[in-house]
Amino acid sequence: MITEVTKSQELFKRRKNAVANGVGVFNTATARDAKGAIITNEDGEELIDFAGGIGVVNAGHCPEPVVAAIREQAGKYLHTSFNVVTYEPYIELCEQLCEILPHGESTKAMLVSTGAEAVENAIKIARMATKRQAVLCFTDAYHGRTMMAMTLTSKINYKIDCGPFAPEVYRLPFPNFYRYGNGLSLDDYIDQELRRLDDSGHNLIAPGSLAAIILEPIQGEGGFYAVPQRYLEGLRAYCDQHGIMLILDEVQSGFARTGNWASWQEYGVQPDLSTYAKSMGSGLPIAAVVGRAEVMDAAGPGTIGGTYIGSPICCAASLATIKYMKEIDLNTRAKEIGRMFMERFEKLQKQVSAIGDVRGFGAMNAIEFVKNGDPTQPDGDLCDEIVKGCAERGLVLISAGTNKNIIRVLSPLVIKDEQFTKGLDIMEEVILKVTNS
């Protein structure tokens, strides 16, 4: 019997022949077109999108106001380089960012193309502002794959054979209470980790040498672990005490995903600098560093940015995205989606022993799979089986975590209730099937 090759399979065959193997394959779905929270694959099948382009389409695939803004700008000019010829969309977007993400009494912003670029520039700004070199980061962090960003990134798989890495980077354990609480109360655990932070000034790196501490308030690739409130407050106090710049990386958690423009606004802990990308442009490559004006202005002329800083088309897309998010109140919608997810899977957790943890911050939700109920025994194989099982049922999912044992949900926030419920149904049915629960 001859099995007909599908268009999706043919596309992957072409990919294998033409695309470098190092480019990741997180899911075997294909796309012919996409709208809202639905992707139509090359074979005409509709897929529910719970990956959102890795958190890039919070406002949905092809939101009409954003597409219209892109078309309009494309008819005017495509590129001048903001360094050479100043244009209004760049300035207007920076004004909007300073308004929705205020850092103290006076805020400034700069634009680049990717989250990794934003991180690289934030580190440079912090170093110039403090005249120091060292940077402190955390385990399970993901900050990108350019040289400084990759050094800051914790996951080894992204770094094999890529060294030598950037110097003067130091690392502490992320305060992961679920995995490392070891029977302590949350308060006692936070006290322990804050002591570890203080001790690091004696046995790791002198605080007077630190330019910056960089942290994802809710880790993305690391597994959607949220920093405890009091630890972030302690980190802010430590930075204030020693003149260190606190950089909060909101690339995956920003732009309505957690129920606000940035998760630090939910915490009420203000950074000196913060980084954004992903859903900022509804799929177009744009990113930003936002910070206190006096810190941002410490960078010397020409030391930050690049040729493609703030493409006018990407600026237009981002401005339209922000306006659209405000009009339909995506921040409130994120919290509604998060509640729906948590209610469903907290119940399932009681039934399925392989579910070690269910967590969420707004609509940044995750399920962690472990063996024997032990947080230190991740079950990546089971997680992979669930992702593949959901794919067969028309649900696009991706995993997360250093051990790839965590399913993360980053559906577009414009997803309809019936679509979201159907996706949750598929997840639950597949989990019950593969765990024999």
UniProtKB/TrEMBL annotation:
The keyword Transferase applies. Pfam families: Aminotran_3 (PF00202). Its cofactor is pyridoxal 5'-phosphate. One of its GO terms (molecular function) is pyridoxal phosphate binding. It comes from the Bacteria. Keywords: Aminotransferase, Pyridoxal phosphate, Transferase. The keyword Cell wall biogenesis/degradation does not apply. Belongs to the class-III pyridoxal-phosphate-dependent aminotransferase family. PANTHER family: AMINOTRANSFERASE CLASS III, LEUCINE_METHIONINE RACEMASE. This is 4-aminobutyrate--2-oxoglutarate transaminase. It comes from Persicitalea jodogahamensis. The lineage of its organism: Bacteria, Pseudomonadati, Bacteroidota, Cytophagia, Cytophagales.
